Amino acid sequence: MTQNPGPRPTSERMVEARDLTFAYPGGAEIFALFSWQIERGETWAVIGPSGCGKTTLLYLLAGLIWPSSGELRIGGECLRRPRPDTGLILQDYGLLPWATLRANAALGLRVRTFYGPDGLHSPSGEQVGDIWPRVDFWLKRLGLEEIASHYPSQVSGGQRQRAAIARTLVLRPDLLLMDEPFSSLDAPTRESLQSLMLDLQAEQGLTSIVVTHNIEEAAFMGRRILFLGRPPQRQGVVLANPGAGPLYRDRRHPAYREMCDRLRKMLDATIQGSG
Questions:
Q1: What are phi and psi of 176, to 5 degrees?
Q2: 126 near 117, Cβ under 8 Å?
Q3: HSE of 255, CA atoms in CB hemisphere, 13 A
Q4: Domains of the chain, each with CATH number or no CATH
Q5: Is the pTM of this model over 0.85?
Q6: According to a count of CB atoms within 10 Å of the terminal CB, is the N or C end of the chain lower?
């Protein structure tokens, strides 16, 4: 059974936000006629000061909340509900404490078997079949094969996050959204998982967006970086960062340090300007 479908086409636009406006009930606008575009296969990081709307933007892209006006298209289709081809990885792992890592990794596929390839809960035309070869492939790929029968409380934070990644990738998403996925981990584990995610993104042809408050993480993971200032967001600042990933494996690389310094200055200026 082939687990890796190979890179997807890169010619199609994956995300297109047109004039999005959003505010939480009773609150001020966070986005006001905001537009943004992402090509298929790109790797983005979103960074900005606390309260700028980073996580809100991710939830809009995931279809978990809805703009009051404007249009959001994912994969060429207007987003009207959470789509089965979008994967979401959260900061707190979201693992079921009473289930083993293997059972947690299988959760999404097991849900899909209840519905079949209806296009709402599971991609149209997908034949799930026997889910366990797919699950075991990703557990092995992510170094969890030997502890697959363990429960989340029995493994480290890095291993729990790997299980959450396995649960997402087993669904074969084409868009991967990550909300502060490594913030609770120690530095060596965090850097190892950052490198792993970039490897998997290239291997699977994923379009990925990571929301982070960490300057070094944004500079390492985003080949393009969206910087959000104070709301309401009308137009973010887009920074090209072509060295992200392979070139920056050596985090002493001058271009990496320069990008970190640039982001730090932008954050400092934004925070001081709002004081």
A1: -115, 120
A2: yes
A3: 13
A4: 11-85+175-275 (3.40.50.300), 95-172 (no CATH)
A5: yes
A6: C
